[in-house]
Every structure is written in C-alpha cells, then in structure tokens.
Amino acid sequence: MVRAAVLPAVGSPLEIADIDLPEPGPGQVRVRLAAAGVCHSDLSLTNGTMRVPVPAVLGHEGAGTVVSVGEGVTHVAPGDGVVLNWAPSCGNCHACGLGEVWLCANALAGAADIHAKRASDGSDLHPGLNVAAFAEETVVAANCVLPVPDGVPLTDAALLGCAVLTGYGAVHHSARVREGETVAVYGVGGVGLATLQAARIAGASKIVAVDVSPEKEALARAAGATDYVVASENTAREIRGLTGKQGVDVAVECVGRAVTIRTAWESTRRGGRTTVVGIGGKDQQVTFNALEIFHWGRTLSGCVYGNCDPAQDLPVLAEHIRAGRLDLSTLVTERIALDGIPAAFDNMVAGKGGRALVVF
Fold this sequence. Notes:
Elements: E1 2-7, E2 15-20, E3 28-38, H1 40-47, E4 56-57, E5 61-69, E6 81-84, H2 94-97, E7 116-118, E8 124-125, E9 137-141, E10 145-147, H3 154-157, H4 163-174, E11 182-186, H5 190-202, E12 206-211, H6 217-223, E13 227-230, H7 235-242, E14 248-253, H8 258-266, E15 268-276, H9 290-296, E16 299-302, H10 310-322, E17 332-336, H11 341-350, E18 355-359
Parallel strand pairs: 11-12, 11-14, 12-13, 14-15, 15-16, 17-18
Antiparallel strand pairs: 1-2, 1-4, 2-7, 3-5, 3-9, 3-18, 5-6, 6-10, 7-8
Helix pairs in contact: 4-5
C-alpha cells in the first residue's frame, strides 16, 4: 500500500489515504517520489476551476526514482532519477504537428484512466493531472517521465516539472524577453519567483515584482526583482513611474484574475507584450474597448506550460542551475510532509509564501 493525497470530489477537502497501486504494465513506469511541489493548479482542481475525473490522487510537479518499468520501456531503468511530465505530447495531433507540443490535444487524456484503488473500499481513483505526484509512489505512462539532468539534486528537480518550466518558458518562449528590456511580474508565488529568475537570466534591465503581500518583497528581490510594488488600484501608474512614464516592455501575469490581467496590460508600454500564465475561472471576464486595442498596439497572449517542450528545455535549465544562474532553493519557502498539503493550499489562498515542497 501507498499513502496518497486523494480528492474525493470537487469542493471536498483532501484526504490522506492508503491506496493500492498496481505494478507497471506495458509502457508504464513506477516511481518512488522524492519530492512534489504544491502548485496552484492542484488547488484549481479541488475547487473546480480546472476539471478532471474524480476521485483522484492530485499532484503534478514531482521527481523521484524509478522502481520498476513495464514491457517496452527503454529510456529509463530502475534506479534512475526522473522528473514527472504532467502534460506529455502525443506527437500526432494538429498542435504537435506544428511543433506546439504544449498545446497537445491529448496531453491530459491519461487523467481519465484508472490509476489505483482506495485500500479501504476498493473504489477507483484517477491520476489527477496524469501523474498523481501527491503519493509515496506512482505509476505513470513512460512519456510522463524524463531523466533528471546531471548536477540537479533529485528533491530540487521536482520544481522543474511545472513552476520552473512555466516561469522560464513564459519569459523565453512566450514573451521572448530581450536583453535590456523592462519586465513586470504579477504574483510572487512559485511560478512568479521562477519568472523573476528567468527575467534576470534574460538580461532584463529592470524587473518589477508585484504582489498583494508586502512580506514577499525579500523573496522577490532574492529571485531577481529590482523593484517591488504592493498591488493597489494605482499599480499600473506606479510601474509607469518606474519606467520613465512609458510602462514595461513585458508584463507576465501569474495570478489568473481579471483585475490582475487588466492591470498587467495597462502597465505595459505602447507596443509591449503582456503574457498571461495564471489560470483563472470562466467568471473572470477581462474587457477591452476597440479603440484602446488599436491605440496601444500591445500584444496579449496566453501561455500554457511556459510554451515549453520539456525534453528540449530541461537540459537548458540544468545548465543554468549548474552555472549558478538559476537557484531553485529560492522558490521553496516551506518543506512539508504529505499531510501538510491542505495547510499549504490555505497559504496559497491567503497569498502567503512561495512554493511548498512535499518531501518524502
């Protein structure tokens, strides 16, 4: 049996329960988790903002050691360290054919599979966002694991599975920040902290962090922020004041709220780029009038999983880590056990801290 964090139903609290996990079948890999990050997307599954079949074992940002492999698996072997890839590309759909693997139409097809059974009553459990990382061990499809790059500690590698790929990709793939440009990052959680570091790596001349919490300023500056703004109705005006009344070249929104998206847009200079990383609900309606779209000439774009191809981007991130340009430790503000996940969710709702990391 394996201990896991189970979501019984949308709107219900997580339960720490024993599950019966099968041995890997053909094309599957069993992984013993070393660590799993507590991401806002997991919270979005509990409240229904994102929908997957339930009951489910949550968790999608993780890394661990291969325990066993099923028939046909050759790219990893027992004892290998691996990063979980919660959105594997199928290679066959229209988006994959275009090389836009982050938009794969079948990336979450595995979420409907039966992953395990609850030990207490034998009821079926689904794998959340494909990989069910909130568990001591998990069984995943072979394309959901990638070898941990050399020189990256296994526990730290968990963060590469979502927060770091998303933040790095938002800067380098979606917004395409150029050296010397100015950047504003809205939301100083795990993804926001990774985005700040990515902006610094890109050579941004001014990096403004924005958050509702004054207490996060030290975290933001450690990650690369040159300026810090406590969110208010005057945020866009403050950011324009920091940039010669022009606005930033790039704003990256990591919150997923209509008011924050609108403010990020308003804080971007004429002709600038606004990238939305945060996942908001259908009720979060953002409005623009036709004249301002013409006048400001800004680009507003969504960003899924950092517009990354994990197989291509993980080696790049590993090189930044080995060179000391990317410090994963600055993202983690709390290391917890499996039963600490509900409290970590509460902290996210309250806007406290960066990334909580479950360490097994």
